[in-house]
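lol ok so funny story. i was supposed to be doing the assay writeup but got distracted and ended up predicting the structure for this chain instead. priorities right. anyway since i did it might as well share w the group, maybe its usefull for someone
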Amino acid sequence: MVELTMHNLSDTRQLLTAELQKTKATEKEIARAKLLLEETFIRLKTGMGNLPDFSVKVYLKVRFGEVNLRMVARGEEYDPIVTLTEQSTDDENVYRLVILKAFRDKMSFVRKNGENIVTITVHETSSAQKQMIYTIAALFLGIVVGFAMQFGLDAETINMLNTEFISPVRRVFLNALQMMVAPVTFLAIISGITNMSDAVDIGKVGSKLVFTSVLMVALVTLCSLGVSFLVFSGDLSYLQSAIQTGGEQTASQYGSLKDMIFDIVPDNLVDPLKGKKILQVLFLAIFFGIVLNRMGEKARGATETLDFLFKFTVGVLKIIVKAIPLIVFLSMASLLANTGIDSILTFSRLFVGLAVGVIFVWLVNGLATLLIGKISPIKIVKKLVAYAPMPFTISSSGPRLPFDLQFCTDKLGIDPKIVSFLIPVGIQLNKAGQGVYFSLVTVMLMSVYQIEVTTNLLITLYFSLVIMSMAKPSIPCGGIICLSYLFLTVGVPAEAVTLILCIDPIATMFNAICNASTNITSTLIVANSLNLVNKEQYFAD
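and the output, tada:
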């Protein structure tokens, strides 16, 4: 805390600079914070009587990566935050008003206990990061509460809480999520196809990228499926007690691969949008997207309308997923209360499977580099392993994009021009991490419900995993939406996705390593086929 006055204003600015440099605030954010601090102080001083001994207490608050300045001034009530219509004839005040108007969204005011409190936002954590933090916090809180319930409550009370409170809340969330499955998936796929039109125009380059990406995802998924059956070979039926299905176990959606293929084309446009058969939704989205691309400029109005609807549905979905921390807390508390430490051990096997999946991804990357790219894979595998902490910590592909681009050009010697095309396009295609994650989770839940694995079911599951991995939309809860379909495919109740929400944030970090590694590898393979790789730079340490 600093007591800010007119006499120590300059010293306070210097002290503030030194303290903010220790946080995640950028130089631009620090400069803006100092400017707002000074202008707000002067406005408070003037508005609260312009007393000669006027002072403001300044606090620096850092919480979950967010950085805020709090200014507290005791005295008569005065809100220093300007309105958009406020005007001034004084030149100095005009300048001050322009600054405060420009950044009024970074400030808030509250009157409490005889004090005027102004909060200045210096550095904000992104909504995705906040959601991640809240979800992980809810996860650990759920573990603590779950153990407390197991040791402090009898079985009858725990069952009553599950039946009367936890299960209904989870059901409401699941209903809201399923309500958005079909429209969001449909619009996301169409949006992706229209945005991929440039890749089609590239022709040879685009086709090479698609072929390489699909092949690696298919191989990774095949390996992951085998690993999944090894990891979850035992009886996990005890976990059923933590999943309140509210009904009977569902039957497998398709009896065979043939049934799945011939059911892709719907007989009307209404039933697919009910969300029960997501493959029909994918078919319609891909078909309509291709038609829109073929229509060119004539379809601009339709494309813009669909783009608006996509943004709208994603906005609705973002509101729904804000409840995820609550659902994670309730699910984990219920899980631990019903099953105890055994469930923690089961989930630890899932994380072991994810780690093994990362290793398989690197092996497939190396094999593809050697056989398709016709270049020694040793260097790229070593460099991918060294690069792994980056996607693990920055799991979102958007914020990580500049680092992926720099890695390809600086470490692998790939021409920047081709990298700037292949990496962003490849983000939509290279989703090997989903192949690993979806395989492990689906097989784990099949073990929970003791579903018999037949040849037809195994083949259908494999192709469903590949399709869902490639088609997973880049939207909030996109993975959960795909898992709910996969569960229906093998006969697992859709309610089981609430159990997976508990580990989804952590699994996302492993997925990011796999996706980034596969994307970088496919970029190297395509670039090398075009002689756009600096071999000296590639083989350098």
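The beta strands are 2-4, 56-63, 66-74, 107-112, 115-123. The longest strand covers residues 66-74.
back to the writeup now i swear
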